[in-house]
Predict the structure.
Amino acid sequence: MKSYKTIFFQIIIILLFILLFGFLINNLIINLIRTDLGFNFSWLLKPASFALAEHALPYSPSDSYAWALFIGLLNSLKVIFISLFLSTILGTIIGLSRTGNNILLKIISSSYITIIRQTPLLLQLMFWYFVGFLGIKNNFIYFSNLIKINNQGIEFFGLSLTSEFSALIIGLSVFTSAFIGEVIRGGIISVPKGQWESYRSLGLTEKNGLIKVIIPQALPAIVPGLTNQYLNLAKNSTLAIAIGYSDIYAINDTIINQTGRAIECFIILLLTFLILNLFITNFMETINKLVHKKKIYIN
Amino acid sequence: MQLKKTKKYLQKLRGILFLNSLNNFLTILLISTILILSLRSFNWFIFNAKWSVITTNIPLFAFGTFPSDQRWRPIIWIVSLLIISLLSIIPPKWKWFQKNLIIAWIGMIPLGIFLLYGGLGLQTVMSRNFGGLTLTILLTICSSIFALPIGIGLAFGRQSSLFVVKKLSSMYIDSMRAVPLIAVLFFGQLLIPLFLPLGIEIDRVWRAIFAFTLFVSAYIAEDIRGGLQAIPNTQLESAKSLGLNQFQIIRFILIPQSLRIALPALTNQVIGLFQNTSLMSILGLVELLGVGRSILANPKFIGQYIEVYIWLASVYWLICTIMALIAKYLEKRLKIA
């Protein structure tokens, strides 16, 4: 009797859901017909006819929309992976200095964390772009052709980065590093104090003790937090549009302005991020497994 | 005596700051950079910065383009919000007040709508005149109050034994958490009108609130699910043995306890939401950051980025820090209780 009731209840929920969905889709179809747009993806093959300042692969305005979107995806991935790398390094330094002995470092790193975490990322990105790059003089740092930092961007060892790209990388890395710093501090704190005392009493050097005893035990607590921060970083990279960097979101936005294909572009954006999320989660899951294996080995 | 104490203190400081060569190097490097930086920025702060860009635009930062003779209305609303949050942090001992606290919080939304939009005897104000901190607070308060019950519902849905409910809620939560906020807000601004029947239009501000609610409720659901999982099983068993029914268990056992456990995470969500309302400045609402952007676009104040950004950052920082401190205080008090 009871299972009959629950099945009935679930069927009602499905019906309600379908009803709501149908209502919305119906409205959408009516509106699309009214605006004479329809729903198809054939426009993807038409020429994009907008220029992109930043492209990793050859691109010209006569290339198709699909190619422009792919270039945008590559731009996004470039930003995400470089900032992922930089923010991990910076975050580790901050997390370690928060748990270390030097009081000065502790004060500096904790004020860094409060300042960065309590202000919006968008504001920080604008700050890095408009003040950090556009605000500086022509030859801000000039180091015998090897390292140049000016309002055109960063140039070092023959590799030139635009100011939009550099500002985005710096902003994202700085913002994420404050969160990663907290994750790493949490991981180190989670290792019982006895572990530190025991490796010292065993006569291991500080370096060996950290590498062989503390870090392997802290990692299982760190990796899930890191995964979350990496996912946030990937999602936050879409704020690139505010400073004019052409990432996947910015290009979708441009295409919508040109063609009015909001629904299709939105679907493309959603799918891109679902896949990206899956990719990062799976990647971190393998790392997580590795870390746990190592822990068992040491125990 | 005093000298000895000072000497001991200095020795202790030396033990911390100048322990070994690495620490020596770090300390000297840090102290010198801090000195140079603070000297230069102090110099800039006092002599070079033109703070008139802030002082002349204070009303704009606070209220946007709200009609100047009607500014008392957002002021009243914000002050009553402050009072009610103060009363919920340090609750007076009146029983009736504690019982009706939730109702008072929910009542803040109609009060805000009435005061900001006008009508019923007040002069009506269009929502395009909302702006500045008022709009930021409106977005934050409304979205968080709407998102909390939805989040609770989704969290229970995900834990439900009913297959359909479970699948639907986890699908919603997971896909919402995978998508960047700006895409959701974009959906709210540009796509919601496409999904509505002809002739029905929703205000831009409410579309933004709707989008924020959709987004934040998924995150709140995960926080509350964490709280639910942390409730010991014995609580459920004892509730069942007392003869409480399903509804009573949820109402009196699960919701209060999971909310208490999830409180720090929930306040973090509100802080995050407060910061994230700044994204609306890209999508055409003139909230706090949007006001900053429009002022910087004004030829009269061109190039004064640093002043405006420092001012905005300190406003955001101050409000977020106060919220974080309140959260810490509440956490402590609830642990004792």
About this structure: Chain A touches chain B through 52 residues (CB under 8 Å).
